[in-house]
Amino acid sequence: MENNLPAIPPKRYFTIGEVSELCGVKPHVLRYWEQEFAQLRPVKRRGNRRYYQRHEVLLVRRIRDLLYEQGFTISGARNRLAELGPGAIRALEDEQDLDEALAEAAALPLAAAGAEPDEALPSPSALLPPLPEPSDGPLTPQQLRAELLAIRALLA
């Protein structure tokens, strides 16, 4: 979904221009989406300036994915977000944190990770517990969150 988008920096608030760059969407489109999606409500301060929080940036990325990548209409994307509920954004935030942690770990040189260059490292699959059998349906946001937190604990 967000493979070609930049990582979200660890800030509390983002301007509309920053969100535009982080999400690959023009500012006028963001202002339009604020009218169409009730969940997207940035804080407005001084002179009606918009300040988005991290969860809203993730929501914009989710809306962008639904509209541009998956081909939903605006009303279809609105319905899909309503189906997923507020827990979906928290799960996306955990997923984003996990993606960032994995990217940071991959960027570390071997010496910084405590391994010698000639030392054979075990494969990542050898370090993880076996995956559970696939269920009949999609995971609930709570199940996804639990799995992501378990993976995060393994990486720590």
CA gyration radius, whole angstroms: 19 Å
How do the helices and strands follow one another from N- to C-terminus?
A: EHHEEHHHHH
Quick one: biggest sheet?
A: 3 strands, antiparallel
Low-pLDDT parts are none
Helix content: 40-55%
Q: For the record, give the distance between the C-alpha atoms at the N and C termini, rounded to a whole number.
A: 25 Å
Mean pLDDT: 78
Helix/strand/pairing class, anyone?
A: mainly alpha
Strand content: 5-15%
Number of strands: 3
Q: How many helices?
A: 7
Q: Largest beta sheet: what is the strand line-up?
A: 1-3-2
Mass-distribution shape: globular
Overview of the structural elements:
It is a single chain. The protein contains seven helices and three strands. It has helices at 16-23, 27-36, 54-69, 74-84, 87-107, 124-127, 141-155; strands at residues 14-15, 43-45, 49-52. Strands 1-3-2 form a three-stranded antiparallel beta sheet. The model has no long low-confidence stretch (mean pLDDT 78). Helix 3 crosses helix 5 and helix 5 runs parallel beside helix 7. The protein is mainly alpha-helical and 156 residues long. The two termini are 25 Å apart. The radius of gyration is 19 Å and the shape is globular.
Notable features of this structure?
3-stranded antiparallel sheet, 7 helices, mainly alpha, globular, 156 residues
